[in-house]
Design brief:
Number of helices of chain A: 3
Helix content of chain A: 25-40%
Radius of gyration of chain A: 16 Å
Number of strands of chain A: 5
Oligomer: homodimer
Structural class of chain A: alpha+beta
Strand content of chain A: 15-25%
Largest sheet of chain A: 5 strands, antiparallel
Mean pLDDT of chain A: 93
Largest interface: A-B, 31 and 31 residues
Order of helices and strands of chain A: HEEEHEEH
Distance between the termini of chain A: 23 Å
């Protein structure tokens, strides 16, 4: 039996090249790919729903919204604990990269941009070694259960 | 029969004084108060869930998340049409105002901050007369149905 997917499906998903270049892969949830942004100034994950053709936040289909909210919560709670954050910032901007992606950033009142948004603080600082944070995130998140 | 609300309820909600000072009231959805930010550079609404004690995006109770997503969509679609936007920006930051509020901003590729986030573009420009935009928003949104 030959089987075709007629609608959007994770198999149609390709991560945008700029996100792939700027981030480290943490793993996949049921809906989103979880990335670590390569900026050592802020513990900063990016969630990318693995569906084709999403651009704005409200493009997320109704059937996927509860899952997206859960995955935002899981990453927020993990980053808040790992980063001992005073505040979490969540944003879907996408002015540079048209593929829908959601920034989740652990903020501290003594960080490099506080109280401004992180985008006001100039260029990022690449990690010397992201592996300890990647390992912490993998330990806190229940990733890749289906793979 | 005397009746008390034991849990969070819209009756406990008070809009933060800074949001009240910086914004115009558009109306109330079932969950959120809808505000227009007083910055004429960008068509920019702010949604404030009318529940007490919310701070981070993931603090929104599971029972309210679908409604919040709907209300974000309705405001996004309205602002996109009214502002002929090229991209919508959605963000819950809250570094200055601790009450959870969600920015929904219509961006154009020729606006005062593009492609940077709006917070990178300096101080806002108050409206000379916000009433035409307030009237357009009220015409596009199905507000205050229960009041």
């Amino acid at each position: 039996l030959y089987f075709r997917f007629e609608d959007d499906h994770p198999m149609d998903f390709t991560l945008h090249s700029r996100l792939a270049a700027d981030c480290f892969l943490i793993g996949d949830f049921a809906l989103c790919r979880v990335l670590l942004n390569n900026d050592a100034r802020f513990p900063w994950c990016i969630l990318v729903p693995r569906l084709a053709h999403l651009r704005d936040f409200h493009d997320v289909p109704a059937a996927n919204r509860a899952t997206l909210f859960d995955e935002i919560e899981w990453v927020s709670v993990a980053l808040q604990r790992i980063g001992r954050a005073d505040k979490m910032n969540v944003a879907a901007l996408g002015n540079m990269v048209p593929q829908l992606h959601i920034h989740i950033i652990a903020r501290r009142t003594n960080d490099a941009a506080w109280p401004a948004p992180v985008w006001s603080a100039g260029a990022g600082t690449p990690y010397d070694d992201p592996q300890p944070l990647i390992a912490q995130l993998k330990a806190h998140l229940d990733l890749d259960r289906s793979s």
